[in-house]
Design brief:
Order of helices and strands of chain A: EEEEEEEEEEE
Helix content of chain B: under 10%
Structural class of chain A: mainly beta
Oligomer: heterodimer
Largest interface: A-B, 19 and 23 residues
Helix content of chain A: under 10%
Radius of gyration of chain B: 13 Å
Number of strands of chain B: 11
Number of helices of chain A: 0
């Protein structure tokens, strides 16, 4: 089946630094989603991307839908301690724009005060 | 607006015992999903409901797993008998229709001893 590969697997940064992570796929996705999961909680949607080349911001978060439709990037500017968590990319399977989501394996972010 | 509710939050059982998880979706969300999340991985879809109909259960291990959503609202996921490899977090999500954003519950962490 389709797989999403996230990198890096983990990051250790200082508060105030910018963060960049990405997600790649061997097949085309029509929608890219970025989720954050805190310990003991379910994933929460941060940003949704629906169009190739689209750049979308949500506060200090910016995500881009790659022009090839096989990758996406998430940037966090001026990190703060509450940014700690696991960040997942996800997309609907089978080239659709809805329904069953395929998730990456996650990027673990640690922010040192 | 209340989010997706799941219970119990934690469950510890011995192998070969049965276990059941309950989910109440967000009011008005007709699509309900059950995901399993293994440690260090992203969630993987087990089954998806449109109202009371299971429209995608291809990933559900039907020899031991079963699910129901009798009145098209809340849902129960059952494992009988549980195996050691079933230890994971079981997440429920709901959306307003097939293309809607999926909102996740906090999950049930299952430990099989």
């Amino acid at each position: 089946g389709q797989q999403l590969n996230q990198s890096p697997q983990s990051m250790f940064i200082q508060e105030g630094e910018d963060v960049s992570m990405n997600c790649t796929s061997s097949s085309i996705f029509n929608t890219w989603l970025w989720y954050k999961q805190d310990p003991g909680e379910g994933p929460v949607l941060l940003i949704a991307l629906y169009k190739a080349g689209e750049l979308t911001s949500n506060g200090r978060l910016t995500a881009q839908f790659g022009i090839t439709r096989k990758d996406s990037f998430l940037n966090i500017s001026a990190s703060i301690p509450s940014d700690v968590g696991i960040y997942f990319c996800a997309g609907p399977a089978g080239g659709t724009s809805y329904g069953k989501l395929t998730f990456g394996q996650g990027t673990i972010l640690t922010v040192h005060p | 607006e209340a989010g997706v509710v799941q219970s119990p939050r934690y469950k510890i059982i011995e192998k070969k015992q049965p276990v059941a998880f309950w989910c109440n979706p967000i009011s008005g969300h007709n699509t309900l999903y059950w995901y399993r999340q293994n440690l260090g991985q992203g969630p993987e879809l087990l089954i998806r409901y449109e109202n009371e109909e299971a429209v995608d259960d291809s990933q559900l291990p039907k020899d031991r797993f079963s699910a129901e959503r009798l009145k098209g609202v809340d849902s129960t996921l059952k494992i009988q008998p549980a195996e050691l490899g079933d230890s994971a977090v079981y997440l429920c999500a709901s959306s307003k229709g097939l293309a809607g954003e999926q909102f996740f519950g906090p999950g049930t962490r299952l430990t099989v001893l």
